[in-house]
Amino acid sequence: MIYNFRLTDWLDDERVSQTGEFRVHRNYMGNDGQFIYSRSPGAEERSINSTHDQGNKATTIYIGNTPPIATGITAFFVCDYYNLPCLKSCLEKHSKYETVKLNKEYFNYCIHPDLINNSQSPNPDSSENVKKRFIPIHLKEERLKLEESKKYFEECKNAKDEKINSEIKGFVNGYFNWLTNNIKYELIDTLEKACKETKEYETIKKWFIENGFCDPVTFVWKDRKSGYKKTLSGYLKDLEIKGYTKELKDIEIQNIAKNSFGIIIGISVIQHVKADKTSIIPPFIIE
Predict the structure, then answer these.
(1) What is the DSSP string of 213-282?
(2) Nearest alpha-carbon partner for 146 in 51, 73, 85, 94
């Protein structure tokens, strides 16, 4: 759809530098020739200041409360970052570009925080294993981000922009294929896969059963007391501290809870639970 207002997009580059997350916001020019929003004068303010007057009082809308028009790989493809031309700029100017190089560049931005956290861990894993754990989660998140970017592909500045946006969407799906076809990974979605070795799995499974948390036959979580989902989430986070698993991501915990324990837990519940060094789960002892 061709949009009637003039559009201008900008990348939240501060967020990229701090978190590796790409988010593009869209500004619209109204009938008065003024942009409805303008970028904040200082990055520290993290705000978008509205030029619309409400009772002679200027309003401020903070970036955190302003939904982006595009996120993830879509945002990376459509906005220049620190004067580096993006894919969309190359398509508009008929410049040369290397698709695989762009894919690798975006992937490296995204995985960098995980690699740093791993390197600072008291028991760091290999970078290859970090990648194996990261990719299935990243792929799932990126598919959701494409859905969140739907409005970007629906609002176009003109017919040329509409055509290029259609091409961009093809490149986004190409990134998904690149991840799937070129990098092997193992999806951690069960307790058995999460544990380091078979011995760790058998030991912790036995503990859950003997302490009455799980059914001895089906292994379904039996406890239904108030807050039981937080309890299970906490125990799964404690497993890394106690030596049974590597650190588990929230989405991995969500999948393990569903597939191994038969419990569906919202991701927000898991995010608010912290690992507990004093957990009643016994440490794994290597015999």
Answers:
(1) SB-TTT--B---STTHHHHHHHHHHHHHHTTSBSPPPHHHHHHHHHHHH-----HHHHHT----TT-SSP
(2) 73
Residue 72, phi then psi, degrees to nearest 5: 65, -145
Task: Identify which of 146, 144, 112, 145 has the alpha carbon closest to the alpha carbon of residue 131.
Answer: 112
Per residue in 209-221, pLDDT (tens digit) is: 999 999 999 999 9
Q: In the chain, where are the structural domains located?
A: 6-182, 191-271
d(CA 1, CA 61): 27
- Cα 7 from Cα 17, distance rounded (Å): 25
Pair 254, 187: CB distance under 8 Å: no
Strands 70-71 and 23-29: antiparallel
Confidence of residue 57 (pLDDT cuts 50, 70, 90): very low
In whole angstroms, what is the distance from residue 204 CA to residue 164 CA? 53
CA-CA distance, 70 to 74, in Å (whole number)? 6
Beta strands, E only, 69-133? 70-71
Residue 153 tokens read as 């592909």
Higher pLDDT, 2 or 236: 236
Q: How far is CA 56 from CA 51, 63, 140, 169, 185, in A?
A: 11, 22, 46, 42, 57
Element (H, E) at 39: strand 37-39
